[in-house]
Write a structure and sequence with these properties.
Helix content is about 50%, strand content about 15%. The chain has four helices and three strands, in the order βαααββα. The chain has a three-stranded antiparallel β-sheet with strand order 1-3-2. α1 crosses α4, α2 crosses α3 and α2 packs across α4.
Length: about 90
């Protein structure tokens, strides 16, 4: 089911990912790392595909419609696990 998000929020999620996360996502989905980068707003289609990301101009960087939110869901899961790990290490 498609999901709508602002472009700036999509970039904030990408920027919140721990180092190496794009490689983890790419490996799990059997796609190139550049394809994952393109999903988050990159535009190198020589080494990666489009992945059903549609950007419309508007406030907050515009509106992004994701045909398949699988990469977004994986990214959010990685961020959540990273936060929980950091909290556990603080104790």
């Amino acid at each position: 089911m498609p999901r709508t998000i602002s472009f700036n929020e999509l970039r904030r999620i990408k920027d919140s990912l721990p180092e190496g996360s794009t490689h983890v996502i790419a490996d799990k989905l059997n796609v190139t790392v550049q394809t994952v980068r393109n999903y988050f707003g990159g535009s190198n289609y020589d080494f990666g595909s489009h992945m059903g990301v549609h950007i419309e101009p508007g406030p907050d960087g515009g509106v992004v419609i994701l045909d398949d939110p699988k990469i977004l869901d994986m990214a959010l899961e990685i961020i959540e696990k990273s936060k929980k790990k950091a909290e556990a290490e603080e104790v």
